[in-house]
Write a structure and sequence with these properties.
Tetracycline Repressor, domain 2, transcription cis-regulatory region binding, 200 residues, transcription regulation, transcription
């Protein structure tokens, strides 16, 4: 085994990681099928093939897997946003427009996010706060990503201005996910224009 080869996890740690992934996969499938409001930890445990006490031990309560599930799915989602923001194109407006359009389109394609948003449009689903709450790591991760990108594009701007612009971009994009007003490309164009005007 080479010096750079990863050290395998101890059996107990490996089992715990596998159990966690199985539980999150089960929670994701059940949420896509019926919405988070209809998902119980008993059903999640049964689908994952583990005991309910094991689920409680790993996640604490019903909110635990919900939050962890959204974090896992959104990390993958934000990786795509980052790719859209950093294509090496000099036109900042075009980059931001492409990133917003990516969010709007991918939200329709990804089963979990689509399920959460569809339920929210009907006035239900308690999983939505994990996507939208200001204090939640998901919102913060999106804002941090956008603010970092803005800092590379507008180095003359102060931190507070960049933070406000990033906050507006993330909030407006999420709002249009829940309550779409126009065709997606028109929404992306308008949001990009509005947000970047704050930095002029």
């Amino acid at each position: 085994m080479g010096r750079d080869a990863p050290v395998p996890d101890p059996p107990r740690v490996a089992w715990r990681k596998q159990t966690r992934q199985c539980v999150l996969d089960a929670a994701r499938d059940l949420t896509c099928e019926a919405g988070w409001d209809q998902v119980s930890l008993l059903a999640v445990a049964a689908r994952a093939g583990v005991s309910r006490p094991s689920v409680y031990k790993e996640f604490g309560n019903r909110a635990g897997p919900g939050r962890a599930l959204v974090v896992r799915e959104t990390q993958q989602f934000l990786a795509g946003v980052a790719d859209a923001l950093h294509p090496g194109v000099p036109d900042s407006h075009a980059c931001l427009r492409a990133a917003i359009l990516y969010v709007l389109r991918e939200a329709d394609k990804q089963p979990l996010i689509r399920a959460v948003i569809t339920a929210a449009r009907k006035g239900s689903d308690s999983l939505l706060p994990y996507l939208t709450a200001r204090a939640d790591p998901i919102f913060d991760a999106g804002q941090t990503l956008v603010q970092g990108w803005l800092a590379t594009r507008y180095p003359e701007q102060d931190t507070e201005s960049l933070q406000v612009a990033a906050d507006v971009i993330v909030r407006m994009t999420i709002s249009h996910l829940i309550l779409p007003a126009d065709e997606q490309h028109l929404t992306a164009e308008r949001l990009a224009t509005t947000a970047l005007q704050l930095l002029k």
